[in-house]
Amino acid sequence: MEETHVPTAPSERGAWLSALALLVLGVGVLAAALSGALGSSRGAPATAPPVVPTAARTPSAVASASARALRAGRGAPAAGPYAGKGVRRDALDAGAARGRRTLAAASSGGVVAEPADSASGSGETASSFGASAVHIPAAWEAGFYPIYAEAQHVFDVNWLLLASIHMQESAFSTAPSTYHGLNFAHCCGGPMQFNVTNGPVTTWGLVKDAYRYGKRPATYDHQTARHPSIYDDFDSVMAAAWLLSSDGAGTSLDDSAWWAAYDYYGHDATGVAYADEVLARAIGWSQHGFCINCGVEGSLIDAVDAAYGAPVLEMLRTATPARVRHAKRRH
Predict the structure, then answer these.
(1) Cα–chain-centroid distance for residue 126?
(2) What pLDDT shows up at residue 53?
């Protein structure tokens, strides 16, 4: 009798393995979508601001080092932390800690010897001191966070001071001519409004190579094809950090930060008001959190002015004509 062949049922092992693989893949895709990884790139900007080094105290006129120095006769309207010292463009050790600054002491200054010859002095928001006419989206400002963080890391300058000057000069790069041409004074351009017409050497010429000391983000807006450029976000912010550092600014939002902001604008009554507002805004952010579209507290401006600005303004008002002429030649 012929034996009937009964076919063997196909194994379900392969099907189960395929189903399991698809399940694992599906879970991975879902997790990526929920975490926001899908659609983002490796160089996507951080969505949170950098860490604030420390919350700054509201300054007191009684405790103001700048006021004490002025009363003792050591200060002058045209004197910042590096007044009278020689230009030192090699003050950074490019091989140490990715360019972390090692400023020379004693008779050697930073990048600039005298005031910064008004690094900006006439940014498009200068007349209203940072009062932006447009609402700045959070996503727009987030693109600058990695740059602020790198500038703070390399030059030890509080990123809130940088951001405050960025706001003051170009309303976080939303001013119409930020990325082309020069400002209404035909002297300055870019996100941080560097002066490219003063000198020689121009303010921009002194610090344009600051980008070499930091790590450029993989991607960011307004990256230029050639470097350095006042219109490149990274080049410009890094240069501003180097300039502020060389004028004495550090991670503390104190009188040194005020002097650096005063040097950044230029030495006159408007420069005093500029430095007052820049530092007050940065202090407010350190106390209450970074707020892109918030105004500056009037009480903080008054406190900063009483501590740092008013003594300098008084010296400007009582300065001899010769001294005033000497100060104005620096702009």
Answers:
(1) 17
(2) 83
For 60-88, write each residue's pLDDT tens digit. Answer: 876 566 555 655 544 443 333 333 333 33
- Distance, C-alpha 90 to centroid of its chain: 22
Torsion angle (degrees, nearest 10) of CA 207, 209, 213, 216: 110
Nearest to 246 by CA among 87, 110, 86: 110
Predicted confidence (pLDDT) at residue 316 exceeds the cutoff of 70 = yes
Q: List, in order, residues 6 or more apart from 221 with CB less than 8 Å away.
A: 143, 233
With contact defined as beta carbons under 8 Å apart, do 315 and 76 qualify? yes
Domain extents for the chain? 74-328
232 phi and psi, to 5 degrees? -85, 125
Q: Average pLDDT in the 197-226 region?
A: 92
Output the pLDDT for position 28.
57
- Which long-range contacts (C-beta less than 8 Å, at least 24 apart) are formed by 297-301? 300/58, 301/276, 301/277
Q: Which residue has the tokens 């080094």?
A: 53
Instruction: Look at 73-87, 90-104, 265-279 and tell me which has the smallest mean pLDDT.
Output: 90-104
Q: Quote the pLDDT of residue 47.
A: 75
**111, two tokens:** 């990048």
Q: Rounded CA gap, 193 and 182, in Å? A: 8
- Listed residue (225, 222, 219, 264) closest to 241, CA to CA: 264
The pLDDT value recorded for residue 83 is 37
